[in-house]
Amino acid sequence: MKMKKLQQMMQRAQALQQQLDGEMDDLLFEGVAGGSTVRIVMNGKKYVDSVTIDPQALDPEDSLLLQDLIARAFNDALKKVDDKLAEHADRLGGSLF
User: 22-52 in b/e burial notation, b at 16+ Cβ within 10 A?
Assistant: First the structure.
């Protein structure tokens, strides 16, 4: 009897994971840095959709600043995806039990 219940819980968990994946597929998250000088748009599967860099940020004398802004914008977008994933997982996880 316990194995059957465990199997049902596992099937429910797989269904919830598929539901979560489907919900995240259509979402886009924007990370910004430098007062929107650099913008990165990432989807819910953590793939970069687009990168926008203000031409004023393209200073050949200061490439380290641009590199830093890109990294910050990427990390900002990634955090937003992770936060939404955690929110969805908490919401869906409660229906397992």
Answer: eebeeeebbbbbbeebbbbbbbbeeeeeeee
Q: What is the pTM of this model?
A: 0.78
Alpha carbon distance, N-terminus to C-terminus of the chain: 16
Instruction: Give the integer Cα–Cα distance in Å for 23 and 55.
Output: 35
Residue 13: name the closest of 23, 21, 24, 1 by CA: 21
CA dihedral over 35, 41, 44, 45, signed as positive or negative: negative
> What CA–CA distance (Å, rounded) separates 58 from 42?
22
Tens digit of each residue's pLDDT (9 = 90 or more) over 9-26: 888 878 877 877 777 888
